[in-house]
Every structure is written in structure tokens, then in C-alpha cells.
Please model this.
Amino acid sequence: MVFGKEVALQSHGKDKYGRTLADVLLPDGTNVNHTLVKEGWCWGYRNCAPGDAALVGLETKAREAKMGLWTDPQPVPPWEHRKARHRQAVLNTRNADLDIEYQV
Model:
């Protein structure tokens, strides 16, 4: 269910982590994935939807109209945010290891 509405999933297989890749469709046929991209609330992640020209076009229009996340002059894609968090966690772990060595 999405916002109390029954939905259908149109699966496109699985990603490298075994997660299902799918379009979320409302009973009236509305593609929730496309709506979110069109309104600027998310990126059209091309790795998960290769060849989906509609997503590319919807994202481009949302960017040009500065809608949703595109109001930010420098939005950070989620995959870059995750990489940065991972790098920071590694640095924190290394720094913690150094602190332990100095305390000995």
C-alpha cells in the first residue's frame, strides 16, 4: 500500500544486492516512480532502470524547472552521500584505532 492505496509492482529483476527492482503502479495506472521523478523528489537512477528514457526526460524537466530537490543549487545524489558517509566511518575507525594506540 502507498498512502492507503493498493499498488501493483512491475518487477524488472533484482539488483546486485538481491533487492527487487520494480515500478510501483497505482490502480489508475499512475507510475509512482515516474511521478516522484517528475515532481523532483528523487533521481531517476539509471543503473536500476537502464533504457528508461522517460525517467531521464522527467528528471531533466524537473531539474530545469528547479522542482523538489532541484531547488538546491548543489544537490547530493544518494549514492555520493552514502560513499561520503562510508569514507567518514572508515576515517573514524582509523582515528579510534590511533587513539587506542596512543593510550597504551
